[in-house]
Amino acid sequence: MPLQNRSSRTRQRTVLLVIIMVLIVTIVAVLAAVLLANGMKETSMELLQWKGRGTTKNLQEVILGRCYNYITTVNPELRDKDCQKIWEKMQKAFIYKNPCNITIEDYQPLLDLASHPIPCNKSLFWSKTSDLVHRYTKTNHNFLTLEDTLLGYMADGISWCGNPSSPGINYESCPKWSECESNPSSVYWKMASKMFAEEACGVVQVMLNGSIEAGAFRSNSIFGSVEILNLDPDKVSTVQIWLMQNIGGPPSESCMGHSITRLKSILEERNLRVSCEDNYRPVQLLQCASDPDHADCRLCTNSVQ
64, 72, 121, 193: which has the fewest C-beta neighbours closer than 10 Å? Predict the structure, then answer.
């Protein structure tokens, strides 16, 4: 009997130790799981901070809506474009990525899907005349800016960028162009601008602002650093410059000005013919719609009786 009692007590202690060990392991596992979950939650909430506005809310719906509207209403000839695939390629280019490390390769599949030919004699480039040039193309459909193409139409005025951690898209802030060169917006617009310039043929136009003291042409602008360098002299016959001055504003530069002279020189060195016109009248009339009584808007003067 004494041996049996000792054996029984030994088994009881063994079972008790096993139960205690199981409880300890279970508690440790639960604590580890809680800590891991909290750590993942903190990581998912860790968003990189930038100075620019964050990704446009409902970005997917905005891009898809604009794409469908473009191929059904604006340019039905492109109705075979697949908007869903275009959105997927755009999202893949930046989601879960550091927004300062975007590359040309990231966007190439998107550009291959969304690009389309531009008819000859219709390309209209611009710099520092955004509002005026787009008012003009809305009234005169003989010209197309980059924003009148599918790529430009979808992305005009919106913001987007990714984040390495969950949820992969930063809705709080995105890099300004000055914060880092290879951000999603900068790379996108430079690639789209390059493609737009490469497609140009025949006579092309550029609308510049003649009321800027620093000069109408800036070599570091998208037009100066990307577009004019990708115009094909074998396809483009002439570049017509429309130098527009603000109604009632200072005429800081004319077609004989220093920056326009520099622009002409760059274009001529690339074997492109150039012409320039101060205050191209059809565009000036559009300016005058908001101030028709201004002296700059008079079509003729009263003759002396």
Answer: 72
For residues 246 and 237, give the distance between their C-alpha atoms in angstroms, rounded to a whole number: 29
Please check the confidence at residue 302 and state whether its pLDDT lies above 60.
no
The per-residue pLDDT for 43 is: 41
Q: Which of 67, 201, 255, 276 is catalytic?
A: 201
- Of 105-119, 155-169, 249-263, least confident by mean pLDDT is 249-263
Residue 201 annotated in active site = yes
**What is the number of residues in the chain?**
305
CB-count burial class (<10 Å; 0-12, 13-18, 19+) for 7 = exposed
- pLDDT tens for residues 39-81? 444 444 577 899 999 999 999 999 999 999 999 999 999 999 9
Task: Choose, from 120, 180, 288, 297, the residue flagged as catalytic.
Answer: 120
Quote the mean pLDDT of the chain. Answer: 88
Asked whether 194 and 114 are in contact (CB, 8 A), the reply is no
Peptide bond connecting 109 to the previous residue in cis, omega within 30 degrees of 0: no
Q: What is 135-168 written as a DSSP string? A: HHHHH-TT-B-GGGSHHHHHHTT----B-SSTTS
Identity of the amino acid at 29: A
Q: What are phi and psi of 275, to 5 degrees?
A: -135, 160
